[in-house]
Amino acid sequence: xxxxxxxxSVLFSYSFIQxxxxxxxxxxxxxxxxxxxxxLRRFSMIGDGLSHVGFxxxxxxxxxxxxxxxxxxxxTIAAAFFMLWLNERGHMQGDAAIAILSSSALAxxxxxxxxxxxxxxDLNSYMFGSILAISEGDMILSIIVSAVVLILYALFYHPLFxxxxxxxxxxxxxxxxxxxxxxxxxLTALTVVVGMRLMGTLLISPLIIxxxxxxxxxxxxxxxxxxxxxATSVLCFFVGLCASFLFxxxxxxxxxxxxxxxxxxxxVVGAVRRTx
Length: 276
Known about the structure:
Blueprint: H1 4-11, H2 15-40, H3 46-64, H4 68-89, H5 94-115, H6 121-128, H7 136-155, H8 157-165, H9 167-172, H10 177-199, H11 204-216, H12 222-246, H13 251-274
């Protein structure tokens, strides 16, 4: 009789699963860290907006024959900076800027794809995610980009913390708030582009939002939220990856559903703890 452990040993013997595991853990860590700042600053949907911009860039790159991820990274970074500029200059509120850019980019991507090559399997994998779509080159690029995100976050942890909680106070004490806002936008754009291959355009945003919200249900200190968010993000990814294989389910959707269950569980635990 084949046990679950036997099935999992078979699962991790596949090279594409090994690549997905490496990329998924790195993306989960990056998303969990950045999600805290984005949620606390009420800018949670920037991940969703940037992923749609990334899809538009991927569609154009596929049509003209450019490496998709290499084309999507600069375009998504530029979009993140543009959203921040619109919000800071008061030309448009953050949510409005995200809505316009995301919907427009997604529409352009779909139109270009439909009128040229059709909605092929490769672009579908960007929309809904696919562990089969992660190539050796994608994994290497993801490792490099994720390492950059994690190193920069660690180096600038304290100023990012200050800007997240009170931007005006941080500015008054000499912190270049605009500089760290740009850094946060840059790191978010990089994480979104790397995670799109695995989670898809439509499902990368929950990977950023859920771990932070889950950790906030039970943790009271910022450091506690950071550590709990990282742990739950990686654990939910691992459980979702295994469950998707065992039950033949879509990987991205399964990971998001595991995050949802974890969030609901932590919400119940937090409510019980607060009950006198």
